[in-house]
């Protein structure tokens, strides 16, 4: 079986050509994120973890003074650099680093950390949330969106896909380490890590892709 980084390196080029599966849910996520970014101080700095091909970073980076988009996959970073080269985004920096890498800590602390479609892939969710907290200034915001299929109502197609998920992972068709989270479980872990949740939503609702805005305590 591929490691997580090997998987994303292998699929990076094809991933960059895919469209968004649920455009309405994606746009809602961007709108709610931008709402919070626009209320930051002019000097605020944002870190996006697991930025992939950089598509979301390019949609959001104009809302802040400094935006760092990071990913552990060199293949994804290559795609992100290609996208940035075709865009007008002077305040966007790209960093080849994964959560827990020293480079991220040295670049921080940040006013906001973003993690979209990442938390369910972390090998240790609790440790990962602790690392996110350490990257933030006191009072900083953590904004994430995470698929939470555990115990949730979902279309028949999704239920069938989750049944064969282990086989698809074994064959290298899906990323390893996928964690089936429940919405309440994820919220509880974020609170346990020292955050106060200030906004949630599910975009889409079935299966829930859980959007959370949380603030780091002192």
Tell me what the structure shows.
The structure is a single chain. The chain is α/β, with parallel strands linked by helices and 218 residues long. Strand 4 (110-116), helix 6 (125-135) and strand 5 (136-147) form a beta-alpha-beta unit. Helix 1 runs parallel beside helix 4 (74-85). It is globular, with a radius of gyration of 17 Å. The protein has helices spanning 4-15, 23-37, 55-60, 74-85, 102-107, 125-135, 156-163, 165-170, 183-192; strands at residues 45-49, 66-71, 92-96, 110-116, 136-147, 195-202, 209-216. It has one domain: 3-Layer(aba) Sandwich (Rossmann fold), CATH 3.40.50. The chain is built from nine helices and seven strands. Strands 3-2-1-4-5-7-6 form a seven-stranded mixed beta sheet, with helices on both faces. The model has no long low-confidence stretch (mean pLDDT 91). 39% of the residues lie in helices and 23% in strands.
């Amino acid at each position: 079986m591929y490691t997580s980084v090997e998987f994303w390196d292998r699929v990076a080029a094809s991933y960059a050509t895919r469209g968004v599966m649920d455009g309405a849910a994606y746009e809602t996520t961007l709108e709610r994120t931008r709402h919070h970014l626009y209320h930051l101080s002019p000097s605020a700095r944002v870190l996006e973890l697991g930025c992939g091909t950089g598509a979301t970073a390019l949609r959001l980076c104009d809302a802040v003074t400094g935006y760092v988009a990071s990913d552990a996959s060199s293949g994804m970073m290559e795609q992100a650099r290609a996208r940035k080269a075709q865009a007008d985004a002077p305040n966007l920096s790209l960093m080849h680093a994964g959560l827990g890498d020293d480079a991220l800590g040295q670049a921080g602390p940040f006013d906001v950390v973003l993690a979209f479609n990442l938390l369910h892939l972390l090998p240790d969710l609790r440790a990962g949330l602790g690392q996110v907290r350490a990257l933030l200034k006191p009072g900083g915001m953590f904004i994430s969106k995470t698929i939470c299929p555990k115990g949730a109502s979902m279309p028949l197609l999704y239920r069938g896909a989750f049944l064969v998920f282990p086989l698809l992972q074994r064959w290298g068709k899906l990323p390893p380490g996928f964690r089936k989270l429940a919405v309440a479980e994820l919220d509880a872990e974020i609170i346990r890590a020292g955050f106060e949740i200030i906004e949630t939503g599910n975009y889409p609702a079935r299966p829930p892709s859980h959007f959370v805005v949380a603030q780091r305590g002192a």
